[in-house]
Amino acid sequence: MDFIDLKSQQSRIRESIDRRLAAVLDHGRYILGPEVAELEEKLSEFVGCRHTIGVSSGTDSLLIALMALEIGPGDEVVTVPYTWISTAEVIALVGATPVFVDIDPDTWNMDPELLKAAISEKTKAIMPVGIYGQTADMTLINRIAEEAGGIPVIEDAAQSFGATHHGRQSGGLGNIGSTSFFPSKPLGGYGDGGAIFTDDDELAEKMRWIHLHGQSGKNHHPVLGVNGRLDAMQAAVVLAKLEIFEEEVELRGKVGEGYSNLLTDASVQVPFVAEGNTSVFAQYTILSELRDEIQAKLGEAGIPSVAYYSVPLHLQPVFSGLGYREGDFPVTERVAALGLSLPMSPYVKSSDQERIAAVILSVLSEG
């Protein structure tokens, strides 16, 4: 059993992938080719934003956003410690300081009730993460940011792209949104890639410069930039996947619902989707005091599982200089200690879910 089944998806769209990749090979415009522009246009329509910029990775999308906002040494950016390291990594890379706030015990996303206390006169951005497939409470976070003087909000939608918050698409819920096309993501390519979303014309122009070495025109570089371009081959793959993306989002919801129906009465905490939200279930994650025992038994049965972010960011050696200690973020530490992600894709069969649930329930009954 695959942890993420990309083979079934590929078999559905192989003809489209082959056709689109052949077109790239025929025209030979591998960098900033027409597929990139086509993908940007279609993603803008999907998200409901004015501008989309295809970039080289989800990490670079966040980095470029921070650079466009001119965030640097002496500045602070508020985010969460329960996420992949890229979220905080890019803050440090521009010379700013990550400031962590704990997560909500139900959604495992940024707790808006703790956000106000983390904002200071040095705060130059807030970066909520849509963990495991649903957005944070972006309505409340945006309100707090506005009341604090219009602090920019950068939505890290690497895992929540395709989900909605009160009817609006993830990626379009902040001043800047970003996503990743890493192969395991709900909308992934066959390598690294990502995209940035915004309605702000000035920011969009600046981010386009930055992702092309700070170039606004041939031989003219008004700002420092990076090599952050999305290549045409990856754009071609994502375009093929976009053709079935809305159907896959629906299928993901059904798989998530199936897991929850099988496990709701068990002594595990299943994902909670907040009112007004939908989830794309980038991962289906449970919490259990018997996580290690469950993972071992699943492994014996040939079923893969992953304990993501088991060492949260505030306890990572690279961020030891920030002065955080164990116990500072109790919800994060609990979720990190108990969380286990199960096989998840639009193509997980009901029979496989029943088999997975049976193993989990057997461990719980013995424990």
Order of SSEs: HHEHEHEHEHEEEEEHHHEHHEH
Average residue pLDDT = 97
Query: Helix- and strand-based class?
Result: alpha/beta
The Cα radius of gyration reads 20 Å
Query: What gross morphology would you assign?
Result: globular
Tally of DSSP β-strands:
11
**Mind telling me the CATH class of the largest domain?**
Alpha Beta
**What is the count of helical runs?**
12
CATH architecture of the largest domain: 3-Layer(aba) Sandwich
Overall description:
- The chain has twelve helices and eleven strands.
- It has 367 residues and is an alpha/beta fold.
- The chain has two domains: 7-101 and 111-242, Type I PLP-dependent aspartate aminotransferase-like (Major domain) (Aspartate Aminotransferase, domain 2); 245-366, Aspartate Aminotransferase, domain 1.
- Strands 1-9-8-5 form a four-stranded mixed beta sheet, with helices on both faces. It has a three-stranded parallel beta sheet with strand order 3-2-4, covered by helices on one side. A two-stranded antiparallel ribbon has the order 6-7.
- α4 links the parallel β2 (76-79) and β3 (97-100).
- α1 (7-27) crosses α8 (232-242), α2 crosses α8 and α10 (291-300) packs across α12.
- The longest helix has 21 residues, at 7-27.
- It is globular and about 70 Å long.
- The model has no long low-confidence stretch (mean pLDDT 97).
